[in-house]
Amino acid sequence: MSSRNALLRHLPALAALVTLAISSPVQAAGEPLVVYTARKYQLVDTLFQEYGKERGIDVKFVTDDGAPLIQRLTAEGAGSPADLFITVDAGDLWRATQAGLLQPVRSPALEAAIPAHLRDPEGHWFGLAVRARTIAYSTARVKPAELSTYADLADPRWKGKLCLRSGTSEYNVSFVADRLAKDGRAATEAMLRRWMANDPKILSSDTDVLEAIKDGDCDVGLTNTYYLGRELADDPNFPVAPVWADQNGRGTQVNLSGLGVITSSDKKPEAEELIKFLREPSQQELFARNNHEYPAVSGVKPDPVMARFGTFKRDMIDVAGAGPRLAEALKLMDEVGWD
Ligand code: FE
Question: 153: CA distance to ligand 1 center in Å?
Fold first, then answer.
């Protein structure tokens, strides 16, 4: 079975497609810019509206999970109406590049603004926002000193008290692929088997993991920190906090939401302008402030909700190293019983 088929076989039912047209008050003369986006949060809507108003261009977008969008772009081929693809995960940036769906963009402005490790060396994609995937714990029942590494989630003290999101979540698949690339097969498999020996409760979203910790169904879990940021923005007393994992090792794993210009697009200059707009400090601040992510450019004010947990050492996902291990990661997770 090909890696694509293996991936698709594991994916949950495709989300319904939502297509929204955003019209600027100034009616643009040309055709709209079309964005396929795996980012579904309201923020994308706000940013595209702002861009439309500022530049007098219509931006239409289609939202779905990353894998179905890649499948759709592949099926549409040269006839695709899409100009830009936005992902929530570095693995999808790699998959789209491998599938020939993204065209290289050479832009001194983008190359100066976005650090080299947050963009493709050939310009197929650029980082939009950085997301940390780390340990979340109950502030009511756990002392943070009880765990400091991802491997610590395997401690028998967490037996029956560990919650994980589904092993088909692209965040988890990218996490495991990155560990396969950096730690090797044996060490990664050993850690996952020890996690599974703790009989983790498998839930369908990062938010479910956080809610389960709050409700006492679990004591510890693994989530992207912006989901905790959302909970804390709603309720500053939400009884869950992060442990910045592996600070004495490589650092806490961070993934990347990013974007690139579609190969078949005939609006490359306009698409490039939208990328430049999204990396401007005022837009980058919105990713921090509205969705509690970490900006892809420096000099942007941090999110006040997550800033209370301090800064941390990052183990940036190695896209070129982790990408070729994605299919192996998915298979390994299936083998160890991470459903
Ligand atoms: Fe997410």
Answer: 22
